Amino acid sequence: ESSDARADEIARRSLVIASRICIYTNDSITLEVLED
Fold it and tell me: In angstroms, rounded to a whole number, what is the distance separating the alpha carbons of residues 36 and 17?
């Protein structure tokens, strides 16, 4: 499913999953992308 996804999209998806599992993590996500 994620084989064609960029690294930032994979990171965002993983943070959303973590926010659903962990009571200390919320779904207010700020993702900073550094370009090459």
Answer: 27
